[in-house]
Design goal:
The complex is a heteroheptamer. Chain B has 81 residues and is mainly alpha-helical. Chain B has helices at residues 3-22, 26-46, 50-74. Chain B is built from three helices and no strands. In chain C, α15 crosses α18 (448-467). In chain C, strands 1-2 form a two-stranded antiparallel ribbon. Chain C has three domains: 1-229, no CATH class; 235-477, no CATH class; 524-572, no CATH class. Chain E has a domain at 279-497. In chain E, a hairpin with a 2-residue loop joins β2 and β3. The chains are: A mainly alpha (510), B mainly alpha (81), C mainly alpha (572), D mainly alpha (148), E mainly alpha (497), F mainly alpha (90), G mainly alpha (121).
């Protein structure tokens, strides 16, 4: 059976180019970056093509090695897959573009390896997303994880320890997942998701299936940093180099969330996690706590990047909450939030990257007057921040809206309240920063006449012995702006996205 | 597959695992861990998983023990527990 | 053919041109306006004109009948005189306010529906308040403010009544009203302007505080529109009739007690309005005629009195009877005109007051209300007494310390004119009768019995005054009026608003602010609560404090696994 | 392991042994079809032979045989071979990694072509594993002693 | 009802967004051009909005649907009478405000003017979006845009006080917005639609208890913006903003938008029938009356001029809500008309306060003695507007007062009539002293040397707004048919045509 | 910590052991794992791939893609080690 | 008894896993933690291999020339394949972990977690 090669190209092109990058790095370093960009663009295009296929013809199957499903590995790309794959590849392309200057300045000799691991990380994440085989998923999970450990560890001072920490948790998570797969295998004999979903309904009462479910849930929860298993996240993402945290932070957790949705909806019968076992209930509670916990801890932070880490935990909480509502709107919210949060977080992390790239501060207390120095970056920051807060028409609002709808539909008033309260907490979080950046003159200008404060930037030659901060180079700035524009336009197009894609991604009987 | 042998091997494995954790010297710990891998490998061979056993022998008992020892030599043998 | 416009427009629109003129042209312009008004009045034809559609209502801006025409003529003519009198005033604002005031009262007079009536009514209130304020002194500012508040309250009552009427009857045309909540409220509204008894306090409070020229305008329009409105809607209302009687008496009694000249006259306004109200309340053709005639006369002599007192104040700067005296020689014209006015108001034969009072009294008698009749007669005695007092202590008693000259021509001229008019109408009542709303069916003013009766009264009262002059000599007492309670009420309420209420607000505000501040503080480090040290201070956030050994996380993972499995195994 | 084991016996034994070990490794790779073993195990054995070289001589000797660059190149090439074969199948109108399609360029029938394909990828795996093992070892071992 | 599809609403909306961007790009260096953008955008916007009036008066509805946001709800602009009313007002007053703020900002040599004008244009964008929103969701989007874009305006001074005022503003409004999200969610899950419909679309959905809670949530949510009494605290605090902002905040955009939203909820979401069926109108009316009276009383106690105006605003907003919650045709008409009437009058008042501040840096009522001498036009306009607020004819306030009173009787609730009258009295009580002190009291310790008006940029808008508030009192249908539109709204909401 | 660890570990162990109750017995030829997918590998391996070592045929052909991933993992680890430990440019 | 004989393999895997866990939780030394992690991983491999075992079957290499191949005669090869991959993943992780340990040691000169945390404070 010959089918369109796009599903596999999503993975294989970056995979091969990752190897080529290393070779290129041995020959001529300047080749690495274009190679990376080319491969990432190729996978974006393939994801687009796939999405198009899926939209026009329904689920796309691709048999690797030509073997029929339960025996060979199969790529099953439905709306959910295609959607998440596009998100992952597109965001990583943008981050990839922005990585150039940062990587080449911070890791001059190692850039080829960083790019290689970068591409491998993306490949791993994409592999997780497109596959239809539970074990294949594990393999790609590990590719992504190992690349992630390494990339995080090359960050600043505390990074290796944070990375080691992450590795311990990550391994536990992956192993739990593997155990879950093993438990499923022992009662069904199959590793194919579609096959499993056919076999599992008859086995729902088996203790093994229950244990498998528990293992899977905990394993994925670790990977997606769901409270209380998020412990690794703040350190890891704080100390990672900027482009890495911009890539890893938004995407890894989102892909984890995707896996959870996939397992809950496709592999197990959806009624399983809602009715048979109280998984939805647990997810709700954990999600609710994650939201509050993340927000409160984020409030306590002084370091902007670390704060983003905790915000990320809260965002994961949203997704879990949405899944936990166990109805169409809640799931729609969760899936939409994968996209939205990916965009927002990537943008925010990249903005931190841009600021630190220019020698700017990471402590929020020293953000004063940044808006004059990096007007466009800060404008993008405002947009993304508003999106996290959930101000329409930015995209963050829409996913929150679906989540609230989901909560209302399932009459979970407490969690609706949590959702609403969290957006207030987020508002405090981000408006605090906005205030600093926009309404307080910067440290070195406080003595200078207010009139000299030129809001459009450009001509500020204030005497200062510090690093002169101005707009980041275009390779960083443009992705930031694109993402900010994305945050806005995705918000407005969310209707299309939901009715065109996400609607089909959720089983019909919801 | 003889369950008596199986059981003995399992016991060995358990003992090695515990020992490698209890020893207060990392180098010995690494060596015992190599032994653990070795017993594991025999166990798998006994269970009929020859390929896995082969791999474990090459990797677990072999290369990774070497890595381990190298790493410990390059860092420290000291441990408090 | 020039179509007539509502006279109100001439004045209201005309008012806005005043600030752009200066000097002589302005004076000419000011005099031109009432003349235009006259021309306009003569062009008017009876009936309803200027019916315009405003929102969902048909407004009648020009409802011309004999009554309104009478009022129009009276208002414009007195207005002309008042303008003449105040021609020297330099401040544009005062002219503007006066013209607006005049215009709006004319508007009230000619409006044929309650909507436009109310419309002009309110403008009148505000414009008159400005006239009071223009004296620019603390007492007048406050009094003006009180005046405005009272009128807003009255306006509110009126509005309520009107709206109730509109809702219940569906029409807004001005028409006689019968009993009911709506009419009561409208009555209260009109009554406030007409200085009905407990609502009269604004009048003696504010009028004496207005500017010299301003008080003339004030005396002309506000109360008279009230009376006019009563005549339109409440003629033949017993309550109004007896209220009128009571007012007549009350005003006189309080007037007798006053020391301030203009305050004295102000109380007399109440009293005189009482006469008119009584006339209207009785509601026969004669009594209404009497009321309106009295209105016209009253306007004349009251204006004259205010002018006289105004020129006294203007020339001497003094306003209390205790400080005045002996001006007869120094200001002869003023003195004579004032005496004429006093006689008129007292209803001496030959003066116009005699005619209208006579009409009123005989209408009372005819309709069989002896009580009312006697109330009015008694008031009449009081009037005579009080004006004797006024004239005596202003012009004839001895006072050597006072320096004065005669008032300027533009002041004396209208005074003389009005004095002549008083005499004229007194002597030829037909002149008056020709403009009355109802055809004067065979009423003769100068019947012997009437003349004798009046003279008897005067004689008696005069002897009382001579005998007990000491008792009437002015004192600088504080005289308690209802006013006291209102002011106290206002003070208390205002004090409550600015005091305790605001304090509550501040307290609530400070709670909320401190709440927000605490939240802000807490939001800076919500975990500070957890790390609160023994001395209760929030510690700065320290991320290392929260970096637990990784074993804890693993423990959490395994515990979560345990929990999950436990729950699943149990629940399935 | 910068210090030298100046032990002639060990060095000699190793020098003799290492080629055999390497041949065995190649055998394991090639014979994975019909006996336990395959690219991975073979690769590890090959890698171990180099590690043995290092242990018996020193790391420079090893680097002389298999320099870092070359190791990296090998590791990348190995995976490229693997993925490339897959891609080749794709280019030959098959699915990815559908070795059966290789019969179009190989003079064999599809089933046989599968076997050949497997061999090809085993070689790739072996290369990568060997190179990576060596790389990791070199990196771990060439870490300088504690400074300051 | 005839529906016309047109891009005009979108055009009108985008004008200010584009203007905002142009302002940002033009920046500080070419100030004249920057302010030119503001002004031009205001003009263009106004004419676009006005051009829609004839069609709407004919009973047509102009629609412009963009993208579907989720099933049953799209980003939709739908210009009905009510929306057009608010849009006309907002765009009209934007012209005045933009002229004025040029004078104000330059007069004070303020910093960060680009940010100011940018946010200003954006706030108008939000306000117009609210006006044209065809459904609750679109409305909420622009509601939030408005909230956020006003925050920099409130905190414009960058002092501690200003920033904390801004914080408070945000805290209140975002909490309110959270409630709105909640109630919107409930509405959607009950009905599956959020499109406004004259007479409401919630009838027949959900239990009575739920609907009551829902209504409370809606009112509390939007009520924060409309500064309904227990939620009003932010408004006096937000007075630290520059005066054009306060004017914008109080007269044009923000609080009016809140009231507009409340009215939308009352008339187009719940609908009069449902509300009276649930006896909710009377409850809301009672709350509103409480606000009316209390805020009036509190205004009396304020010495800071702008704060007094702020309380007056609270008072008037509550009056509008009171009108709508009475659910009788005249009351609704009056309430809606009062949106415009109050808009013109209150903006005059704020402009005057700002002009005084620019010239003399005085902010307290007690310091204004005799200022009428030096700034006669400003203070005359102030007096006109203040009297208009109290409902004195011929100012526009009278028309609304009349209809509100009428409406309260139509609803059979005479109590509220007294509330309205009481509030008028209070209005006089707190504005009267300002008027007569400023005109007639002699200044203490300060010499006013003759005429000293602010720049023409400020005086002209002030005088124009004052003149308009008289004009709309005499000709309520002048130019833009405010009254006709208002009564059209009432009619359609009550289903009488 | 150690005590808690011990307790947690034994509790979890206990529940896991309890969870094994429904598993097919060790070495049961009738277990689903032996019946569902694997028979084809065993029966068709030689026929389809000409590889007698079923593990190899499954590893490299039926599930060859997993092995590609596995090799990539190895490669990743190698690159990771280089990136982490190797010092450049000194 | 039947139960024990039938399941003991799984139990041992659980024991190993718990030992690994205990090491990860209770041991402060990072190397010990790493060993614990490895034991944990091998226990999973043990589990998988156990699932593939089949009584009375032989290793999954088809005898040369065998005609009809019966599935019952050979051990299930799939878990072995999976575990080969898992072992590779394990060793890769292990390699990276060692690299990380060396980096950590380079920075802190200790591998005791509490000392590192104390150092950071």
């Amino acid at each position: 059976m010959i089918s369109s090669p796009f599903p596999v190209l999503i993975i294989v092109v970056p995979l091969i180019s990752a190897f080529l990058i290393v070779i290129a790095g041995l020959i001529k370093k300047s080749l690495c970056y274009p190679l990376m960009i080319l491969s990432l663009s190729a996978s974006v295009l393939s994801s687009l093509a796939i999405l198009n296929d899926v939209l026009s013809h329904g689920t796309v199957h691709y048999r690797l090695g030509g073997w029929p499903p339960p025996w060979g590995i199969e790529y099953v790309i439905d709306h959910l897959n295609a959607f998440v794959a596009l998100i992952v590849s597109a965001i990583s392309l943008l981050i990839g573009i922005s990585a150039k200057r940062m990587v080449e300045r911070d890791f001059p000799g190692k850039s080829a390896y960083v790019y290689c691991l970068f591409v491998l990380q993306v490949t791993g994440l994409l592999g997780i997303v497109v596959t239809g085989d539970v074990f294949n998923l594990y393999v790609f999970l590990e590719i992504a994880s190992i690349a992630g450990y390494a990339l995080i560890a090359i960050g600043e001072d505390g990074a290796p320890f944070a990375s080691f920490n992450y590795m311990i948790y990550g391994t536990i998570g992956a192993c739990f997942y593997l155990l879950g797969v093993g438990y499923l295998y022992i009662v069904t004999g199959s590793l194919n998701m579609a096959d499993l979903s056919k076999l599992l309904p008859g086995l729902q009462s088996s203790k093994v299936v229950l244990m498998a479910f528990a293992f899977l849930m905990v394993g994925i929860a670790v990977k997606m940093a769901l409270f209380p298993l998020h412990v690794w996240l703040p350190d890891a993402y704080t100390y990672a180099p900027s482009p890495v945290s911009a890539l890893v932070a938004p995407l890894t957790t989102k892909v984890g969330a995707y896996v959870m949705i996939r397992i809950l909806l496709t592999v197990f019968p959806p009624s399983f996690f809602i009715e048979t076992v109280p998984a939805a209930l647990l997810l709700r509670w954990l999600g609710g706590f994650a939201v509050l916990f993340g927000c409160i801890f984020a409030l306590a932070q002084t370091d902007f990047k670390r704060m983003l880490g905790y915000v990320l935990i809260a965002e994961i909480g949203y997704i879990a909450l949405g899944i936990g509502f166990g109805n169409r709107n809640g799931l729609t919210g969760s899936i939409l939030h994968i996209l939205n949060d990916g965009l927002m977080m990537a943008s925010l992390f990249l903005i931190v990257g841009a600021i630190t790239y220019k020698g700017g501060p990471r402590k929020m207390a020293r953000f004063t007057g940044l808006h004059g120095k990096m007007p466009l970056t800060m404008a993008a920051f405002v947009v993304s921040a508003l999106s996290v807060v959930g101000i329409p028409p930015t995209c963050g609002f829409f996913s929150k809206w679906y989540l609230v709808l989901g909560g209302i539909d399932s009459k979970q008033w407490l969690f609706v309240a949590v959702l609403l309260a969290s957006s207030l907490l987020n508002a405090i979080l981000f408006f605090r920063v906005i205030e600093k950046a926009y309404f307080e003159p910067s440290m070195d200008e406080q003595g200078v006449d207010r009139k000299a404060l030129n809001p459009t930037g450009g001509q500020q030659n204030i005497l200062s012995n510090k690093v002169k901060i101005d707009e980041a180079p275009l390779t960083i700035l443009i992705p930031i702006l694109i993402m900010a524009a994305g945050v806005l336009s995705v918000g407005l197009l969310s209707g299309r996205i939901v009715s065109g894609i996400i609607r089909f991604a959720i089983p019909a009987h919801f | 597959m003889i369950w008596q042998i199986d059981l003995i091997l399992l016991a060995f494995v358990l003992v090695c695992a515990l020992a490698s954790l209890m020893v207060k010297d990392l180098l010995s710990s690494a060596v015992i861990f190599g032994a653990y891998s070795f017993f594991m490998c025999i166990l798998w061979a006994e269970m009929g998983a020859v390929d896995v056993a082969f791999t474990e022998a090459a990797v677990g008992a072999g290369v990774s023990t070497i890595f381990f020892i190298v790493a410990i030599v390059k860092t420290t043998r000291r441990t408090k527990d | 053919m020039i179509n007539p416009v509502p006279p109100a427009f001439i004045f209201i629109l005309g008012a806005f041109l005043v600030p752009f003129l200066k000097g002589r042209p302005k004076q000419a312009y000011l005099l031109l306006l009432p003349l235009l008004g006259f021309i306009d009045l003569f062009l008017l034809t009876m009936g309803i004109e200027w019916e315009i559609r405003f929102l969902s209502y048909d407004l009648v801006l020009l409802n011309v009948d004999r009554l309104s025409l009478t009022m129009g003529i009276i208002f414009i003519s007195v207005g002309l005189l008042a303008i003449l009198y105040s021609l020297r005033v330099k401040e544009n604002g005062q002219h503007v306010a006066a013209l607006l005031y005049m215009g709006s009262s004319l508007g009230v007079v000619f409006s044929g529906d309650y909507f436009s009536l109310f419309f002009f009514w309110e403008i009148m209130a505000v414009a008159s308040a400005f006239i009071i304020w223009y004296r620019k002194e603390k007492p007048s500012l406050d009094a003006g403010f009180r005046y405005l508040l009272m009128h807003i309250i009255g306006g509110g009552a009126l509005l309520t009544g009107i709206i109730l009427k509109v809702v219940s009857t569906g029409t807004i045309a001005v028409e006689p009203l019968t009993a009911g909540l709506a009419s009561t409220l409208i009555l209260v509204g009109f009554g406030l302007n007409a200085a009905f008894l407990p609502l009269h306090t604004w009048l003696p409070d504010a009028y004496p505080e207005a500017t010299v020229t301003g008080s003339i305008f004030l005396s002309v329009f506000t109360t008279k529109t009230g009376v006019y409105a009563l005549a339109r809607s409440f003629s033949g209302n017993e309550l109004v009739a007896y209220m009128g009687g009571a007012m007549a008496l009350f005003g006189v009694i309080y007037a007798l007690l006053q020391n301030d000249t203009r305050r004295l006259i102000s109380y007399h306004i109440i009293s005189q309005v009482g006469y008119m109200a009584a006339g209207i309340g009785v509601g026969t053709a004669l009594s209404i005629n009497g009321g309106v005639a009295h209105l016209a006369n009253n306007l004349l002599y009251k204006t004259l009195l205010f002018m006289g007192m105004g020129s006294v104040i203007h020339m001497t700067g003094k306003r209390r009877l205790t400080e005045l005296g002996g001006l007869a020689g120094k200001m002869p014209i003023t003195c004579i005109t004032c005496v004429i006015a006093s006689l008129s108001i007292s209803g001496a034969p030959g003066f116009n007051g005699f005619v209208s009072k006579g009409m009123l009294l005989s209408s009372m008698a005819e309709s069989g209300r002896p009580l009312l009749e006697w109330m009015l007669r008694l008031a009449s005695v009081g009037t005579f007494l009080s004006f004797t007092k006024l004239c005596y202590f202003t012009f004839f008693s001895k006072n050597d310390r006072i320096q004065a000259r005669e008032a300027p021509l533009n002041m004396t001229l209208p005074m003389v004119t009005i004095a002549l008019l008083c005499l004229l109408t007194g002597i030829y009542p037909g002149l008056l009768f020709s403009i009355l709303p109802h055809a004067p069916a065979g009423y003769h003013a100068y019947t012997p019995s009437h003349i004798i009766g009046v003279l008897q009264l005067f004689l008696w009262a005069g002897s009382v005054f001579i005998l007990a002059r000491g008792a009437f000599s002015p004192h600088s007492w504080i005289i308690l009026d209802f006013d006291y309670f209102y002011r106290r009420g206002f003070q208390w309420v205002g004090g409550f608003f600015t005091g305790p209420l605001n304090e509550w607000r501040l307290r609530i505000q400070s709670w909320s602010s401190s709440g927000v501040n605490h939240l802000a503080l807490l939001s800076r480090n919500p975990l500070g609560l957890l790390e609160m040290t023994a001395d209760g201070k929030l510690r700065a956030y320290d991320e290392n404090f929260y970096r637990k050994p990784m074993g804890l996380g693993v423990l959490l993972a395994i515990l979560l696994l345990f929990l999950y499995s436990l729950i699943y195994l149990i629940s399935s | 392991m910068t210090s030298r084991f100046d032990d002639v016996i060990i060095q000699t034994v190793c020098r003799i042994l290492i080629p055999f070990i390497q041949i065995f490794g190649l055998y394991v790779i090639a014979h994975g079809h019909s006996s336990p073993g395959g690219g991975f195990q073979g690769g590890v054995i090959l890698g171990a032979s180099f590690i043995l070289l290092c242990l018996s001589y020193d790391i420079k000797e090893m680097k002389r045989r298999l320099s870092r660059k070359r190791a990296i190149l090998f590791s990348a090439l190995g995976v490229i071979i693997y993925a490339g074969i897959g891609l080749l199948c794709l280019l030959l109108d098959g699915n990815y990694l559908d070795y059966g399609r290789l019969h179009r360029i190989l003079p064999v029938d599809p089933v046989r072509a599968r076997s050949m394909g497997i061999l090809g990828i085993e070689i790739g795996v072996g290369m990568t594993v060997m190179a990576v093992m060596v790389t990791i070892f070199i990196d771990l071992a060439s870490e300088e002693e504690k400074r300051n | 009802m005839e529906v016309v599809t047109s891009f005009k609403p979108l055009l009108a909306l985008s004008v200010s967004a584009i203007a905002a961007l142009l302002i940002l790009l033009t920046g500080e260096r070419r100030r004249n051009l920057r302010e030119g953008w503001t002004f031009a955008a205001a003009l263009v916007k106004f004419f676009i909005v006005v051009s829609m009036i004839p069609a709407v008066l004919d009973g047509k509805v102009i629609e412009c649907s963009l993208v579907q946001l989720f099933p049953g709800v799209s980003l939709q602009f739908r210009v009905d009478a009510f929306g057009l009313f608010f849009a006309t007002l907002a765009s009209f007053l934007w012209m005045a405000t933009s002229a004025y703020s040029i004078g104000y900002m330059r007069g004070l040599r303020s910093h960060a003017q680009t940010r100011f004008f940018f946010c200003f244009a954006f706030a108008l964008h939000g306000a117009l979006g609210i006006a044209f929103a065809g459904n609750l969701f679109t409305l909420f989007i622009f509601y939030e845009i408005l909230t956020v874009s006003t925050f920099p305006l409130v905190a414009h001074k960058e002092t501690g006080e200003a920033i904390s005022g801004g914080r408070k503003y945000l805290a209140y409004l975002l909490s309110g917005a959270a409630l709105v999200i909640f109630s919107m969610g409930v509405t959607y899950s009950l009905t599956g639609t959020l499109d406004f419909k004259s007479g409401g679309f919630l009838q027949g959905h959900g239990s009575d208890g739920l609907l009551r809670v829902l209504f409370a949530a809606f009112i509390l949510g939007f009520g924060t913006k409309a500064a309904l009494m227990p939620l009003h605290e932010w408004l006096p605090t937000a007075m630290v903003a520059p005066t054009p902002v306060s004017a914008l905040l109080h007269a044009v955009a923000v609080v009016k938008a809140g009231v507009f939203c409340v009215l939308r909820v009352i008339l187009y979401v719940f609908g009069p029938d449902l509300l009276s069926g649930l006896h909710l109108g009377i409850v809301l009316a009672s709350f509103a009356s409480l606000t009316v009276l209390l805020s009036g009383m509190l205004a009396l106690a304020q010495d800071n001029l702008k704060r007094r105006l702020a309380f007056s605003t609270i008072n008037n907003l509550a009056i509008i809500i009171l009108g709508a919650s009475l659910l009788s045709p005249s009351a609704i008409t009056g309430g809606i008309f009062h949106i415009a009437a109050h808009g013109f009058m209150k903006i005059t008042l704020f402009f005057a306060a700002g002009a005084i501040y620019v010239k003399t840096h005085l902010e307290k009522v007690s310091e204004l003695d005799g200022i009428g001498k030096s700034m006669p036009i400003t203070m005359a306009s102030f007096a006109v507007a203040a009297l208009g607020i109290a409902g004195i004819p011929p100012m526009a306030g009278f028309i609304s007062k009349w209809y509100l009173c009428l409406g309260s009787l139509e609803a059979g609730q005479i109590v509220f009539l007294f509330v309205l009258l009481g509030s008028a009295l209070l209005d006089i009580a707190y504005f009267g002293p300002i008027i007569y002190h400023s005109f007639f009291k002699k200044p203490v310790g300060r010499q006013h040397c003759g005429l000293d008006e602010a720049s023409l940029w400020m005086v002209i808008p002030i005088a124009a707004c004052a003149a308009l508030s008289i004009l709309f009192g005499i000709f309520p249908n002048a130019f833009v048919h405010f009254f006709d539109i208002a009564s059209l709204v009432a009619k359609s909401a009550l289903g009488t045509n | 910590m150690k005590l808690i660890a011990l307790i947690a570990v034994s509790l979890t162990g206990a529940i896991l052991i309890y969870g094994t109750a429904d598993m097919p017995d060790w070495g049961d030829p009738g277990s689903p794992a032996s019946l569902h997918v694997s028979p084809r590998y065993i029966e068709k391996s030689v026929e389809e791939t000409q590889v007698p070592n079923i593990v190899t045929s499954v590893l490299a052909d039926y599930r060859g893609y997993d092995t590609l991933g596995e090799t990539t993992v190895i490669f990743t680890a190698g690159i990771a080690c280089i990136l982490l430990i190797r010092r450049f440019g000194r | 008894m039947e139960f024990i004989i039938g399941k003991y393999n799984y139990w041992i895997y659980i024991c190993l896993m718990m030992i690994g866990f205990y090491a990860m939780i209770g041991k402060r030394n990072l190397v010990k933690k790493l060993i614990g992690m490895n034991i944990f991983q091998t226990s999973i491999i043990l589990f998988f291999v156990s699932t593939g075992s089949k009584k009375g079957a032989t290793i999954p290499i088809v005898e040369h020339g065998a005609r009809a191949v019966e599935a019952v005669r050979y051990i299930n090869p799939l878990p072995h394949v999976l575990m080969l991959t898992a072992i590779v993943v394990m060793v890769s992780t292990f390699g990276v972990a060692l690299a990380l340990l060396m980096m950590i040691y380079r920075r802190y000169h200790t591998l005791e977690e509490d000392e590192i945390l104390g150092f950071r404070k």
